[in-house]
Automatic annotation (TrEMBL):
InterPro entries: BC10-like, Glyco_trans_14
Species of the source: Eucalyptus globulus
A matching Pfam family: Branch
Signal peptide location: 1-29
Keyword Signal: yes
Gene Ontology CC: membrane
Membrane topology: Single-pass type II membrane protein
Subcellular location: Membrane
GO molecular function: glycosyltransferase activity
Domain of life from the UniProt record: Eukaryota
Full protein name: Core-2/I-branching beta-1,6-N-acetylglucosaminyltransferase family protein
Length: 359
């Protein structure tokens, strides 16, 4: 009479233990948890961001440097595969060598070696670990922006690129397009009345309010996790790679409100790409009219695999590919492109002077 319940409980306990032991082998390994941001990393970043967003941080050009510069921000977790191509890009025109700065954030766990010479030497900033589907890529980008803001008040545009990005034009063309060509931005309503003068600088960042996966991305942390700071109606997505004005770069490093939400871990990894959500949402809420709503980095999303765009291989590299990648409906041309496999370096270098840097 008393033995049956006892035996039943014992059998249930043994079954649960067996399931606990065999479960991982039957179901496969659990997906890795998103890489969290440690309190020490957050504290370090906050100190840097406060200095960069302070009213007394460098914000005006000195009398010794009146021409604005482009800050090129390289975000990488592997060696800089295309460093020789970028080196040629930066050194192509002597008169433009003082019109840019380079900053590199390299994931310290990947053991990326800093070049001993060239434009990348001494340009690696203090870095932290990064990972996909986590807010660490936002932190790394904000770290780059803050460092560049503090480093040189002449930094006026901030171009974020990766180790898989390549230039599609010469530095002279890029500089002229951003600072001197009033009709480069085909969507600028002021271009028709510019009379040959660039009236204002706008940030080139993709901001999309419509996407099949928008709701899934918004709820990747939980249905109500983003409220009240980010209502679904104001949630935006877009390319991770942008060219921001100094005004918008300072807005990014100054933000604390939205960061509290976007730093939360995701529970749906296949729909959570914080670096594609945070910047478009923040700047759309902050200053939508000051943004072009499109990017200057060309990406081919045909044949997407696990959230990665098409990767170009050496047989695909040709003058015709470069010309096709430049074509844009929003600007006179795309300025950069991705994603290229590392072994594309040789064929790209072979057409660098005659095609890529010939504007």
């Amino acid at each position: 009479m008393y033995r049956s319940p006892y035996i039943l409980s014992l059998a249930l306990l043994l079954s649960l233990s067996l399931l606990f032991f065999l479960g991982p082998r039957l179901l496969g390994p659990a997906p890795p948890l998103p890489l969290p941001i440690s309190p020490s990393d957050e504290s370090d970043d906050l100190s840097l961001l406060r200095r960069a967003s302070s009213p007394i941080s460098p914000s005006r050009l000195s009398s010794a440097s009146r021409r604005p510069k482009i800050a090129f921000l390289f975000l990488t977790n592997t060696p800089l595969h295309f460093a020789p191509l970028w080196q040629r890009f930066f050194s192509g025109s002597p008169r433009h060598r003082r019109l840019f700065n380079v900053y590199v954030h390299a994931d310290p766990s990947s053991n990326v070696s800093a070049p001993a010479d060239g434009v990348f030497a001494g340009r690696f900033i203090a870095a932290k670990r990064t990972a996909r589907a986590s807010p660490t890529l936002i932190s790394a980008t904000r770290r780059l922006l803050a460092t560049a803001i503090l480093d040189d008040p002449a930094n006026t545009y901030f171009a974020l690129v990766s180790q898989y990005c390549v230039p599609l034009h010469s530095l002279a063309y890029v500089y002229r397009s951003l600072f001197e060509a009033p009709r480069f931005d085909l969507t600028d309503p002021d271009a028709s009345s510019s009379h040959g003068v660039l009236l204002r600088f706008r940030s080139y960042i993709e901001i999309l309010s419509r996407s099949k996966s928008l709701w899934k991305r918004y709820t990747s942390r939980g249905r109500y996790a983003m409220l009240p700071e980010v209502p679904f109606e104001q949630f935006r997505v877009g390319s991770q790679f942008f060219v921001l004005t100094r005004r918008h770069a300072r807005a990014v490093v100054r933000d604390r409100k939205l960061w509290k939400k976007f730093r939360l871990p995701c529970y749906q990894e296949n729909s959570c790409y914080p670096e594609e959500h945070y910047f478009p949402t923040l700047l759309s809420m902050e200053d939508p009219g000051g943004c072009t709503h499109y990017t200057l980095t060309r990406v081919n999303w045909t044949g997407t695999v696990n959230g990665h765009p098409h990767t170009y291989r050496p047989p695909e590299v040709s003058p015709d590919l470069i010309h096709r990648l430049r074509s844009s409906n929003y600007s006179e041309s795309y300025l950069f492109a991705r994603k290229f496999s590392p072994d594309c370096l040789e064929p790209l270098m072979s057409i660098a002077d005659k095609v890529i840097f010939r504007d």
